[in-house]
Amino acid sequence: MKTGVGLYTALVLCLLMGTVFLQRPRPKKPPKPPKPSKRPSFKPAPPPKEPEPQEPTDFPPPVIGPPSMFPDCPRECFCPPSFPNALYCENRNLRTVPVIPSRVQYLYLQNNYISEVTAEPFNNATELRWVNMANNRIKKVDKQVFEKVAGLLFLYMERNQLKEVPDDLPAGLEQLRLSHNQISKIPSGAFGKMEHLALLDLHHNKLSDSDMGKNTFKDLKNLVQLNLAHNILKKMPANIPNGIAQLFLDRNNIDNIPKDYFQGFSNLAFVRLNYNQLSDKGVPKAVFNVSTLLDLHLAHNQLTSVPLFNPQLEHLHLNHNSIESINGTQLCPFSLSSESLTDEALMPRLRYLRLDGNHLSPPVPLDVIMCFRHLKSIVV
User: Measured between alpha carbons, how far is 213 from 175 in angstroms, rounded to an integer?
Assistant: First the structure.
């Protein structure tokens, strides 16, 4: 009986404990982490475009020099104490011409970024004799500039962007250099009063026959050198002063020389007509028979024969033509049996003859050697 009661009691206790365990709260599962929300995608705004640099901000800043002992010396220039009448403003990245002191006679402004030459900086520059403004960006020169510098002798304005020869140039100019511009116009009377001009350099421009009037060069009575090379001329320039010594017409399109073109030239010593369109038809037989001529360049043309020349000629360049033969008997100004060929004073003076680039083969004909006994070099 006691055994049964004990079993019954044990069973009741087990049931009570199971009930207790069932009522204990179970640990909750940790909540799932929330899904990360998608971040809105923002594309970074492109950096603002910088504006295209405009002149003069595309140039380096002007170079400022140390203070000068001369109170009127522009800070962007150099005034040498040992040469007080000179003003050196070259290679200074200048956009404009500085004020020129009245004491200055020599002005150096080359290799800058100057685009216009105005009159104000020259108001007191009445003593100027030499101005170098080469290698700038000059497109315009005010007419009043040269009224201020009436005594100017040398003007260098090559390698700029001029489209015509400046007006009202000083009448006393002796040298005018305007090469490597874009000049296609020479105003009527541009050189009319410049009787002292000795050198006129207009090579490497855009001059055509119609851009030069018949009297463009007529009044240049003291002209020594005229350089019209590397233009677009088809004809020989008209009314060249007969006192000229050097005439340079290389790299044009000239195909004809008038028969009497050089007649009356009293000092002509150097003629250069390389790289043109000259043929035998466009070169009269004796057009180069000029007693003063010393140096004649006819290379890179279309000649098939050697033109006649004066016994006084010393250098003859005929390379790169279409010459097939050379006849010394025809070229020689005297008969090969003449006593003149034994007289040193009368003997032809030719010393240098260039014939390479033609249809010739060595040796040089004997009659050429017999006639031109002063020859030092022949290039075939």
Answer: 21
Q: Quick check: helix, strand or coil at residue 165?
A: coil
CB-based contact 128:151 (threshold 8 Å): yes
Report in angstroms the alpha-carbon separations of 299 from 237, 318, 353, 355, 377. 20, 5, 11, 9, 17
* Nearest CA-CA partner of 141 in 80, 101, 187, 74: 187
**Angle of CA points 285, 291, 295, to nearest 5°:** 80
89-98: long-range contacts, CB 8 A cutoff, minimum separation 24: 90/132, 91/63, 92/62, 92/63, 93/59, 93/60, 93/61, 93/62, 93/63, 94/62, 95/56, 95/59, 95/62, 96/121, 97/121, 97/122, 98/74
Instruction: Give the CA distances from residue 20 to residues 13, 14, 15, 17, 23, in Å, rounded to whole numbers and listed in that order.
Output: 11, 10, 9, 5, 5
Q: What is the pLDDT of residues 99-123, one digit of tens each?
A: 999 999 999 999 999 999 999 999 9
pLDDT in tens, 119-134: 999 999 999 999 999 9
Q: Which helix (H) or strand (E) holds 8?
A: helix 2-23
Strand partners, 377: 352
The answer to whether 295 and 269 have CB atoms below 8 angstroms apart is yes
- Counted residue by residue, the chain has a size of 380
Is the Cβ–Cβ distance between 236 and 214 less than 8 Å? no
Q: How does 37-52 read in b/e, with b if 16+ C-beta sit within 10 Å?
A: eeeeeeeeeeeeeeee
pTM: 0.83
Nearest in space to 239 (alpha carbons), one of 219, 258, 224, 259: 219
* Whole-angstrom distance, CA of residue 233 vs CA of residue 236: 7
DSSP β-bridge partners for residue 164:
185
